[in-house]
Protein backbone atom coordinates (compact mmCIF):
# COMPACT_ATOMS: atom_id res chain seq x y z
CA UNK A 1 0.00 0.00 0.00
CA UNK A 2 1.24 3.47 -0.90
CA UNK A 3 0.06 6.54 1.03
CA UNK A 4 0.74 9.92 -0.60
CA UNK A 5 0.58 13.11 1.48
CA UNK A 6 0.41 16.18 -0.74
CA UNK A 7 2.41 19.30 0.14
CA UNK A 8 2.12 22.83 -1.23
CA UNK A 9 3.57 26.17 -0.22
CA UNK A 10 2.11 27.46 3.09
CA UNK A 11 0.40 24.22 4.14
CA UNK A 12 -0.44 23.79 7.82
CA UNK A 13 2.05 21.40 9.40
CA UNK A 14 -0.31 19.46 11.68
CA UNK A 15 -2.71 18.91 8.76
CA UNK A 16 -0.02 16.77 7.16
CA UNK A 17 1.86 15.41 10.16
CA UNK A 18 -1.22 14.38 12.19
CA UNK A 19 -2.46 11.91 9.55
CA UNK A 20 1.13 10.86 8.86
CA UNK A 21 1.61 9.78 12.48
CA UNK A 22 -1.46 7.53 12.25
CA UNK A 23 -1.32 6.24 8.67
CA UNK A 24 2.43 5.59 8.61
CA UNK A 25 1.62 2.77 11.02
CA UNK A 26 -0.40 0.81 8.44
CA UNK A 27 1.49 -2.51 8.32
CA UNK A 28 3.62 -2.77 5.22
CA UNK A 29 2.61 0.61 3.84
CA UNK A 30 4.92 3.13 2.19
CA UNK A 31 4.17 6.71 3.19
CA UNK A 32 5.56 9.38 0.88
CA UNK A 33 5.34 13.16 0.85
CA UNK A 34 4.72 14.54 -2.65
CA UNK A 35 4.48 17.98 -4.26
CA UNK A 36 4.50 19.43 -7.76
CA UNK A 37 8.28 19.22 -7.58
CA UNK A 38 10.52 17.30 -5.15
CA UNK A 39 12.24 19.29 -2.45
CA UNK A 40 11.56 21.25 0.71
CA UNK A 41 8.10 22.81 1.09
CA UNK A 42 7.55 25.52 3.70
CA UNK A 43 4.60 25.58 6.06
CA UNK A 44 2.23 28.51 6.66
CA UNK A 45 4.58 30.33 9.03
CA UNK A 46 7.66 29.68 6.91
CA UNK A 47 9.47 28.34 9.96
CA UNK A 48 9.19 24.64 9.13
CA UNK A 49 9.82 22.66 5.97
CA UNK A 50 8.87 19.12 5.05
CA UNK A 51 10.64 17.39 2.20
CA UNK A 52 8.65 16.09 -0.73
CA UNK A 53 10.69 13.11 -1.84
CA UNK A 54 8.81 12.76 -5.09
CA UNK A 55 6.78 14.78 -7.53
CA UNK A 56 3.07 14.17 -7.86
CA UNK A 57 3.74 12.92 -11.39
CA UNK A 58 6.03 10.23 -9.97
CA UNK A 59 3.27 8.84 -7.72
CA UNK A 60 0.39 8.48 -10.18
CA UNK A 61 -1.64 5.76 -8.44
CA UNK A 62 -1.40 5.89 -4.63
CA UNK A 63 -3.78 3.77 -2.61
CA UNK A 64 -4.43 6.63 -0.19
CA UNK A 65 -4.25 10.37 -0.96
CA UNK A 66 -4.08 12.89 1.89
CA UNK A 67 -4.54 16.59 1.09
CA UNK A 68 -3.81 19.00 3.95
CA UNK A 69 -5.08 22.55 4.19
CA UNK A 70 -3.56 25.84 5.23
CA UNK A 71 -3.44 29.45 4.03
CA UNK A 72 -1.60 28.36 0.90
CA UNK A 73 -4.67 26.44 -0.22
CA UNK A 74 -6.25 29.62 -1.62
CA UNK A 75 -3.44 30.09 -4.13
CA UNK A 76 -3.86 26.49 -5.33
CA UNK A 77 -7.57 26.65 -6.13
CA UNK A 78 -6.92 27.38 -9.82
CA UNK A 79 -3.68 25.45 -10.11
CA UNK A 80 -4.61 23.21 -13.02
CA UNK A 81 -1.52 21.05 -12.65
CA UNK A 82 -2.22 20.25 -9.01
CA UNK A 83 -5.96 19.75 -9.48
CA UNK A 84 -5.35 17.52 -12.47
CA UNK A 85 -2.89 15.40 -10.50
CA UNK A 86 -5.43 15.08 -7.69
CA UNK A 87 -8.07 13.88 -10.17
CA UNK A 88 -5.64 11.36 -11.65
CA UNK A 89 -4.62 10.06 -8.23
CA UNK A 90 -8.26 9.83 -7.17
CA UNK A 91 -9.07 7.72 -10.21
CA UNK A 92 -6.71 5.06 -8.87
CA UNK A 93 -7.03 5.51 -5.12
CA UNK A 94 -8.86 3.34 -2.63
CA UNK A 95 -9.21 6.32 -0.28
CA UNK A 96 -9.07 10.04 -1.03
CA UNK A 97 -8.84 12.18 2.09
CA UNK A 98 -8.33 15.73 3.31
CA UNK A 99 -7.76 17.76 6.44
CA UNK A 100 -9.08 21.26 7.10
CA UNK A 101 -9.26 23.36 3.90
CA UNK A 102 -7.70 20.54 1.91
CA UNK A 103 -11.32 19.56 1.21
CA UNK A 104 -11.68 22.79 -0.78
CA UNK A 105 -8.94 21.55 -3.12
CA UNK A 106 -10.72 18.21 -3.52
CA UNK A 107 -13.94 20.09 -4.22
CA UNK A 108 -12.22 22.41 -6.70
CA UNK A 109 -10.99 19.29 -8.50
CA UNK A 110 -14.64 18.17 -8.78
CA UNK A 111 -14.22 15.21 -6.45
CA UNK A 112 -16.74 16.15 -3.74
CA UNK A 113 -19.70 17.24 -5.86
CA UNK A 114 -22.90 16.12 -4.13
CA UNK A 115 -20.94 14.43 -1.35
CA UNK A 116 -21.06 15.05 2.38
CA UNK A 117 -17.80 16.57 3.55
CA UNK A 118 -16.29 18.78 6.20
CA UNK A 119 -13.59 21.42 6.51
CA UNK A 120 -12.44 24.11 8.91
CA UNK A 121 -15.56 25.74 10.37
CA UNK A 122 -14.70 29.05 8.70
CA UNK A 123 -14.63 27.35 5.29
CA UNK A 124 -17.89 25.37 5.36
CA UNK A 125 -19.84 27.93 3.35
CA UNK A 126 -17.12 27.96 0.70
CA UNK A 127 -17.25 24.18 0.56
CA UNK A 128 -20.95 24.45 -0.26
CA UNK A 129 -20.31 26.87 -3.13
CA UNK A 130 -17.97 24.26 -4.61
CA UNK A 131 -20.73 21.67 -4.81
CA UNK A 132 -20.23 19.63 -1.66
CA UNK A 133 -22.71 19.15 1.17
CA UNK A 134 -20.87 20.51 4.22
CA UNK A 135 -21.41 19.20 7.71
CA UNK A 136 -20.02 20.34 11.03
CA UNK A 137 -18.84 16.85 11.91
CA UNK A 138 -15.22 16.28 12.88
CA UNK A 139 -14.66 13.41 10.42
CA UNK A 140 -16.97 12.61 7.51
CA UNK A 141 -16.85 9.46 5.37
CA UNK A 142 -18.79 9.41 2.10
CA UNK A 143 -17.84 6.40 0.01
CA UNK A 144 -14.08 6.43 -0.38
CA UNK A 145 -13.81 10.10 0.58
CA UNK A 146 -12.81 10.89 4.16
CA UNK A 147 -12.61 14.55 5.14
CA UNK A 148 -11.61 16.07 8.47
CA UNK A 149 -12.46 19.40 10.08
CA UNK A 150 -9.80 21.88 11.12
CA UNK A 151 -6.15 21.03 11.76
CA UNK A 152 -6.20 18.75 14.83
CA UNK A 153 -9.07 16.73 13.33
CA UNK A 154 -6.55 15.20 10.94
CA UNK A 155 -5.38 12.93 13.74
CA UNK A 156 -8.93 11.65 14.16
CA UNK A 157 -9.26 11.18 10.41
CA UNK A 158 -6.00 9.24 10.25
CA UNK A 159 -7.01 7.03 13.16
CA UNK A 160 -10.46 6.45 11.64
CA UNK A 161 -8.93 5.41 8.33
CA UNK A 162 -6.29 3.29 10.05
CA UNK A 163 -9.12 1.28 11.60
CA UNK A 164 -10.79 0.82 8.22
CA UNK A 165 -7.56 -0.35 6.60
CA UNK A 166 -5.79 -2.32 9.32
CA UNK A 167 -8.66 -3.19 11.64
CA UNK A 168 -10.00 -1.78 14.89
CA UNK A 169 -7.60 -3.71 17.11
CA UNK A 170 -4.55 -2.33 15.33
CA UNK A 171 -5.97 1.20 15.40
CA UNK A 172 -6.67 0.91 19.13
CA UNK A 173 -3.08 -0.20 19.70
CA UNK A 174 -1.78 2.78 17.76
CA UNK A 175 -4.00 5.10 19.78
CA UNK A 176 -2.62 3.59 22.97
CA UNK A 177 1.02 3.69 21.90
CA UNK A 178 0.77 7.28 20.68
CA UNK A 179 -1.09 8.08 23.91
CA UNK A 180 -3.77 9.91 21.96
CA UNK A 181 -6.05 10.80 24.86
CA UNK A 182 -6.73 14.54 24.41
CA UNK A 183 -7.75 16.55 27.45
CA UNK A 184 -7.45 20.19 26.38
CA UNK A 185 -7.12 22.85 29.07
CA UNK A 186 -9.92 24.88 27.47
CA UNK A 187 -13.32 23.88 26.15
CA UNK A 188 -13.23 26.29 23.22
CA UNK A 189 -12.47 24.04 20.27
CA UNK A 190 -15.54 24.64 18.13
CA UNK A 191 -17.75 27.63 17.25
CA UNK A 192 -20.54 26.03 19.26
CA UNK A 193 -18.42 26.06 22.42
CA UNK A 194 -16.41 29.26 22.00
CA UNK A 195 -17.69 32.66 23.16
CA UNK A 196 -19.89 34.21 20.47
CA UNK A 197 -17.81 37.40 20.35
CA UNK A 198 -14.65 35.40 19.69
CA UNK A 199 -16.34 33.45 16.89
CA UNK A 200 -17.56 36.63 15.23
CA UNK A 201 -14.15 38.26 15.52
CA UNK A 202 -12.53 35.41 13.64
CA UNK A 203 -15.34 35.23 11.09
CA UNK A 204 -14.72 38.89 10.32
CA UNK A 205 -11.00 38.24 9.82
CA UNK A 206 -11.49 35.10 7.74
CA UNK A 207 -10.00 34.83 4.26
CA UNK A 208 -13.18 33.01 3.23
CA UNK A 209 -15.67 35.85 3.72
CA UNK A 210 -15.29 37.01 0.11
CA UNK A 211 -15.13 33.57 -1.51
Automatic annotation (TrEMBL):
Domain DJ-1/PfpI residues, every copy: 2-162
- A Pfam family assignment: DJ-1_PfpI
- The signal peptide annotation in the UniProt record is none
CDD domains documented for this protein: GATase1_PfpI_2
Source taxon at top rank: Bacteria
Q: Which PANTHER family match?
A: ARAC-FAMILY TRANSCRIPTIONAL REGULATOR (PTHR43130), DJ-1_PFPI DOMAIN-CONTAINING PROTEIN (PTHR43130:SF2)
Report what the protein is called: ThiJ/PfpI domain-containing protein
Q: Which organism is it from?
A: Streptomyces pratensis (strain ATCC 33331 / IAF-45CD)
Amino acid sequence: MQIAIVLFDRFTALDAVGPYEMLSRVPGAETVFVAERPGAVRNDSGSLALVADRALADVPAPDVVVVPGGPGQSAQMENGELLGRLRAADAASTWTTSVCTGSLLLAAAGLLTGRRATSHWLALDTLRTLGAEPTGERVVTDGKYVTAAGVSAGIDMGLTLLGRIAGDEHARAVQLLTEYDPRPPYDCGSPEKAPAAMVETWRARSRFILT
